[in-house]
């Protein structure tokens, strides 16, 4: 902390909400720092202009408000989906993947504005502090980082509210007490954690869900969609070429309307404890299924199996906050190379929570009647070859069995 | 083939169907071999007594008909599910896991009956020949293996039918022509492949499905079940302790009735080509979700992540036929050790194809309010620790960034 | 620190040297704690009785002095060598593997003596603090751990010396200033680090080497030895069955006398920086070569390659201090299973730093003329099989090449 | 074989020796094929002009004789050494890495000359047939491949000699009987296998060594060399910038003269059996040590550890013949990315078989006094941080220990 005492100017990741408004004021009053705010539209669904007004009200002169949705989807989400990344078998990394982008802009803005520090609103028990800070340090080794939730002396929600009142920060009625659960959201997902969700034996109450209807509420007839891929990324939906964020937003709509992408899990945090969360990833859930389907006909077995073996490590790196690390870049280079011919169309049926592949085709298919026919004719597949194939694969096992008899 | 000319007595994996009846007769007439039949009840859903009668009619004196369902589930299926094994992201290995058990019994029966060979009805283009034969060689390095589909001189279905007629093998009407698709089934799953399924762009016709109703046909209200685990295996369902096969059969019923476990995929065969299949794994799909859920609260992160990294390799070994290999045994030893405290209950909601976790609890939970409270009180989690944790994790990235500036 | 203020009784890993004597006194005077000393003979080559006298002089009533060499070699070193564990391609983990044993005894002694804390003399920049503490916490989650080098207020060597003088702790002449390098030693290795070794472009001065002569000084004629293994561990040397520590001591002698096992490296510490060290592992270097040689004839390829793929992770776990972790135990279970038939003899030539395998034989060999002959006769290896083997392995590559033309 | 009957024109990998001369004649007489010869200088140490004369004598009109040493070192050997590739802990893949280059040229020449087939002289029990053929198929899926050792009807050496005499192929005296061992050589290594080396308990006779003197014969004083790297590859030796093959040839000279690079091993072949070989890799052994040393100061830990984990798979791919596979390319992409800043100098001492690193330095070093000092000053390393780092790393282990008490 002591090094932080000398901070002069700090770029704050500012949502406009109560908590980051308190942080803003605390940075001004307790740290005597000039504050620059950065508010990003990551597709979380909030209006951004109120954040500008609040910042102005608190005397901020340098206010950055940016729509980074296209960058988020094309430079972070899509590369991650090329890897079919899933953490602990189920989690699509919706929160994890947004943090490096925010840190990248915080660092860039710090350089533009001559700030010597950045600040974020993540708590000291979670993963997000790690993700923000590792990303920031990897991009600027000399940056100072303020994490008020770890650094300030408030002991309770009451202390915070008193501080807010003292500085006339507006307090929405429902924010006076502790929230029944906390939410993080961006275009890829929303997560809900805490309080009413703390007992993993209790089913989450319906009101925690933010952006999907339940499978039960979804229509009784299936919706069919068609996604087209190029180099491993979706480029068109139902025949219409779309920008990454536009396409992803439509996938979200399809998912939401069909009850797709709800997940209730207990996960292992990088900081060492288990936590329970409820996640909604409507578009991502569709995309993962579609991507695996287009890979299934265009990706060679060797490449596919190597990808599957590398994936858990890759997902763990993103979860733990190592997006800007040499090892993530190395894995990305391998993954991206594999995607060169991952192109074509996937047809899907969405029905009450299900994402069902009903067809896939590609000019680059490795599965093809024509090829099969060609191979038979040319002797590419002689069933007699299988005997030799098996014999040599068995040789070491037979040697072993002979010894062990 | 020449070595096979001298075969005297052969144990045939005999289903009682037309194809293996032709093989039986071919072994008798063309190979001049005495035949022992082995017919296993793996839960495929066929009557076994007809197989006995047909074998007797063809003059077989040593007829083995066995119900191996409990062994199948407890010694093959459950160990595999401890690993959360999934091949290429989606396939639950339903066919693959049954083959080693059949080979094991074929080899044991060969030893009991003094047979010098075994025979199976798998074709020369598929994976099953590999799985049967690698397993057999690993258990008896000197066994001779006859794979008639690779070895005989029949060129077409017509040739086969003529041979059957010549030897008065009864031919069901619907077997005269080629089947519109071929089926393999056991308690874990059924698979459908070939012909009408060959174009991966075409949705599978409804009639290929064998053991599940569609999500659309499933009830409009969810069914709730509760599975109890001990040492990584399910031991009770809705509070009732059940034998492995009995429990699994009930899971299959629940899955079937709720449209759970259908899968349409293109996979990479070990013999080198891609194939398209439609699989139904109702109980297995439920079990996989439940097992991951109970692991989520009872398995340490280090163990869980190691398991996730080892899984693709483990699944590939089973898919490729290496169940009886040192490397599968090594991985199993690691996996089994991890399961010692994987116990407790999972509550699930089954609804029109969805398997939704709604609760998990365990006496061995690593997630617990009490623990959390203990840690706070005892200083087990000091938010200040996070700062040091991040700093040291960031150190190498900062050093790198300093260099690369 | 504050939680540590209440420590009542602490078990200190005590070498008897100046630094841990200062720590002992600091614990008594500044922490007001009763101190229990634990001094282990790990084969580091120091007399232990002086440690007892010093402890007695400082008023210690509970003094544990133990020869743990057999336990160290049989329960820590040998299991690790079964894995052929090497960190970053070169380091045999000599320091890393001793720490968990020390922590285990510290925790056991704490329980025997009713101590609520343990203390160690590792600094705050190194790996050993992590290894000591992770091991201790894994064995007793409630233990308090005092790491004086991190916790006290001394700023310099001068401060330490003053404190020692104040409490009449004897100060060897050569310990008044900072040492030209620091040493850690146990039966497996000695390491030298710091000061004169800090520039990685400078060759280490000859005087840093503790327990080997240089290759140049070694005899001009080779020494031949023969090591016998059982279940992956060495059990006899030159025909003489020996206890683990006795055998290992002899290997150390052979290595030392032949200039074997010196290593000058730059390694990556778990705490995030690179450090340069000079290590000497005479017996371990011989053992690693011999173990790989006996495995080369007794271990199946599948097991051997799986071991090679798991090894870097296994070595990293030990290096980072996770000996007592579920994932290390899982890997150990896999590795140990592979060693069941790793038995037989290896003949080696030691010559001026070289360890040269000149022969290996085993009753469990998988390489054998007899087997080869058997296989030829029985048609186990038909060269024609190779054609089929290659054809099917090539199939996917040909399909890919056809597509990409 | 039957498909091969129609071969019209075949490119033969032709050494000019007796065996490939017999193959050449056999292709002409028994296969009625026009033959194109390809003789490559891979640094094996043979004169190539005699091969031209023999080919001309046998009526060959299209004779390709090429010096491919630079391509071999820069496009195959160096990329492989970037990975620190070692097969089964010891083998530097000297034979394996040469095969894909030969196949590549065979395929290119086939396309240039309108040949429909290629032929090689590898036997049916070895790995090289696999490597040649997988590479060829990956580059031209329609190529026909003739492997005379698998395909012809000769039963014994006598048959071959008779055939040679019938067609007046000159037979060197020492080639009438079977050789006491067989040799493969290229610039990276020479290998010796078979006959006198078949018993792995017997030390190899001195006369099998081709290109190194023994450590005993090497000079009594050490030789010091300095290798400079750029992007992971050596570019200069003792201050002199050299082409890849020239530099490598000098490393070979240094290795040979100092008894460096001998290896006697038992390895696992891809075709299923164990074999014993004696390999000499003088320059490669030096290069591996030097490359690891320059990486030790320039490669980040995350990148280094990922490389170590991927290496066994990468080495296995090359050993098994999958150089031209998507998965090898993916791994190469990851590895190459890691090498961008692997530059600087390594100083080595060569002494009687030892390769001893005595210094490493780099403008891109991640180890540096200056950095260390900078970090201390800026608070980059606060020893207090270590406490938090350990606490959070320990948290899951403590939770586990609490549960398991």
From TrEMBL, chains A, B, C, D:
<feature type="binding site">
    <location>
        <position position="191"/>
    </location>
    <ligand>
        <name>L-citrulline</name>
    </ligand>
</feature>
<feature type="binding site">
    <location>
        <position position="91"/>
    </location>
    <ligand>
        <name>L-citrulline</name>
    </ligand>
</feature>
<dbReference type="Pfam" id="PF20979">
    <property type="entry name" value="Arginosuc_syn_C"/>
</dbReference>
<feature type="binding site">
    <location>
        <position position="127"/>
    </location>
    <ligand>
        <name>L-citrulline</name>
    </ligand>
</feature>
<dbReference type="GO" id="GO:0000050">
    <property type="term" value="P:urea cycle"/>
</dbReference>
<dbReference type="InterPro" id="IPR023434">
    <property type="entry name" value="Arginosuc_synth_type_1_subfam"/>
</dbReference>
<feature type="binding site">
    <location>
        <begin position="13"/>
        <end position="21"/>
    </location>
    <ligand>
        <name>ATP</name>
    </ligand>
</feature>
<feature type="binding site">
    <location>
        <position position="127"/>
    </location>
    <ligand>
        <name>L-aspartate</name>
    </ligand>
</feature>
<dbReference type="InterPro" id="IPR024074">
    <property type="entry name" value="AS_cat/multimer_dom_body"/>
</dbReference>
<dbReference type="InterPro" id="IPR001518">
    <property type="entry name" value="Arginosuc_synth"/>
</dbReference>
<protein>
    <recommendedName>
        <fullName>Argininosuccinate synthase</fullName>
        <ecNumber>6.3.4.5</ecNumber>
    </recommendedName>
</protein>
<dbReference type="GO" id="GO:0000053">
    <property type="term" value="P:argininosuccinate metabolic process"/>
</dbReference>
<keyword id="KW-0067">ATP-binding</keyword>
<dbReference type="InterPro" id="IPR018223">
    <property type="entry name" value="Arginosuc_synth_CS"/>
</dbReference>
<dbReference type="GO" id="GO:0005524">
    <property type="term" value="F:ATP binding"/>
</dbReference>
<comment type="similarity">
    <text>Belongs to the argininosuccinate synthase family. Type 1 subfamily.</text>
</comment>
<dbReference type="Pfam" id="PF00764">
    <property type="entry name" value="Arginosuc_synth"/>
</dbReference>
<dbReference type="InterPro" id="IPR048267">
    <property type="entry name" value="Arginosuc_syn_N"/>
</dbReference>
<feature type="binding site">
    <location>
        <position position="267"/>
    </location>
    <ligand>
        <name>L-citrulline</name>
    </ligand>
</feature>
<keyword id="KW-0547">Nucleotide-binding</keyword>
<dbReference type="GO" id="GO:0006526">
    <property type="term" value="P:L-arginine biosynthetic process"/>
</dbReference>
<feature type="domain" description="Arginosuccinate synthase C-terminal">
    <location>
        <begin position="181"/>
        <end position="398"/>
    </location>
</feature>
<dbReference type="GO" id="GO:0004055">
    <property type="term" value="F:argininosuccinate synthase activity"/>
</dbReference>
<dbReference type="InterPro" id="IPR014729">
    <property type="entry name" value="Rossmann-like_a/b/a_fold"/>
</dbReference>
<feature type="binding site">
    <location>
        <position position="40"/>
    </location>
    <ligand>
        <name>ATP</name>
    </ligand>
</feature>
<feature type="binding site">
    <location>
        <position position="123"/>
    </location>
    <ligand>
        <name>L-aspartate</name>
    </ligand>
</feature>
<feature type="binding site">
    <location>
        <position position="128"/>
    </location>
    <ligand>
        <name>L-aspartate</name>
    </ligand>
</feature>
<dbReference type="InterPro" id="IPR048268">
    <property type="entry name" value="Arginosuc_syn_C"/>
</dbReference>
<keyword id="KW-0963">Cytoplasm</keyword>
<keyword id="KW-0055">Arginine biosynthesis</keyword>
<comment type="subunit">
    <text>Homotetramer.</text>
</comment>
<feature type="binding site">
    <location>
        <position position="279"/>
    </location>
    <ligand>
        <name>L-citrulline</name>
    </ligand>
</feature>
<dbReference type="GO" id="GO:0005737">
    <property type="term" value="C:cytoplasm"/>
</dbReference>
<feature type="binding site">
    <location>
        <position position="182"/>
    </location>
    <ligand>
        <name>L-citrulline</name>
    </ligand>
</feature>
<feature type="domain" description="Arginosuccinate synthase-like N-terminal">
    <location>
        <begin position="9"/>
        <end position="170"/>
    </location>
</feature>
<feature type="binding site">
    <location>
        <position position="121"/>
    </location>
    <ligand>
        <name>ATP</name>
    </ligand>
</feature>
<keyword id="KW-0028">Amino-acid biosynthesis</keyword>
<feature type="binding site">
    <location>
        <position position="96"/>
    </location>
    <ligand>
        <name>L-citrulline</name>
    </ligand>
</feature>
<keyword id="KW-0436">Ligase</keyword>
<feature type="binding site">
    <location>
        <position position="131"/>
    </location>
    <ligand>
        <name>L-citrulline</name>
    </ligand>
</feature>
<comment type="pathway">
    <text>Amino-acid biosynthesis; L-arginine biosynthesis; L-arginine from L-ornithine and carbamoyl phosphate: step 2/3.</text>
</comment>
């Amino acid at each position: 902390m002591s090094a932080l005492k000398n901070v002069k100017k700090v770029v704050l990741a500012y949502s406009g909400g109560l908590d980051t408004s308190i942080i803003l004021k605390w940075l001004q009053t307790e740290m005597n720092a000039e504050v620059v705010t950065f508010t990003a539209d990551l597709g979380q669904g909030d209006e951004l202009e109120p954040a500008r007004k609040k910042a102005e009200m608190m005397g901020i002169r340098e206010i950055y408000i940016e729509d980074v949705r296209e960058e988020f989807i094309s430079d972070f989400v899509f590369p991650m989906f090329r890897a079919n990344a899933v953490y602990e078998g189920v989690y699509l990394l919706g929160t994890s993947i947004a943090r490096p982008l925010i840190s990248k802009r915080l660092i860039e803005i710090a350089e533009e504005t001559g700030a010597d520090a950045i600040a974020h609103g993540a708590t000291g028990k979670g993963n997000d502090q790690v993700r923000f800070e590792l990303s920031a340090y990897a991009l600027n080794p000399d940056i100072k980082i303020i994490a008020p939730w770890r650094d300030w002396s408030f002991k309770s929600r009451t202390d915070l509210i008193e501080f807010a009142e003292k500085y006339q920060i507006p307090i929405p009625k429902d924010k006076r007490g502790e929230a029944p659960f906390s939410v993080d959201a961006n275009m890829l997902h929303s997560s809900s954690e805490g309080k009413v969700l703390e007992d993993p034996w209790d089913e989450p109450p319906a009101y925690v869900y933010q952006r999907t209807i339940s499978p039960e509420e979804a229509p009784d007839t299936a919706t069919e969609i068609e996604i087209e891929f190029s180099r491993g990324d979706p480029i068109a939906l139902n025949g219409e070429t779309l920008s990454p964020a536009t396409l992803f937003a439509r996938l979200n709509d399809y998912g939401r309307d069909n009850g797709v992408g709800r997940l209730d899990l207990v996960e292992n945090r990088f900081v060492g404890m288990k936590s329970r969360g409820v996640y909604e990833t409507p578009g991502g859930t569709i995309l993962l299924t579609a991507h695996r389907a287009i890979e299934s006909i265009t990706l060679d077995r060797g490449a596919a199996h190597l990808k599957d073996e590398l994936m858990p490590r890759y997902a763990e790196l993103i979860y733990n906050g190592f997006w800007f690390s040499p090892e993530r870049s190395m894995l990305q280079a391998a993954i991206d190379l594999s995607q060169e011919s991952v192109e074509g169309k996937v047809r899907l049926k969405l029905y009450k929570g299900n994402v069902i592949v009903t067809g896939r085709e590609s000019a680059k298919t490795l599965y093809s009647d024509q090829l099969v026919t060609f191979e038979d004719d040319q002797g590419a597949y002689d069933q007699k070859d299988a005997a030799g194939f098996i014999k040599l694969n068995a040789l070491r096992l037979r040697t072993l069995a002979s010894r062990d008899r």
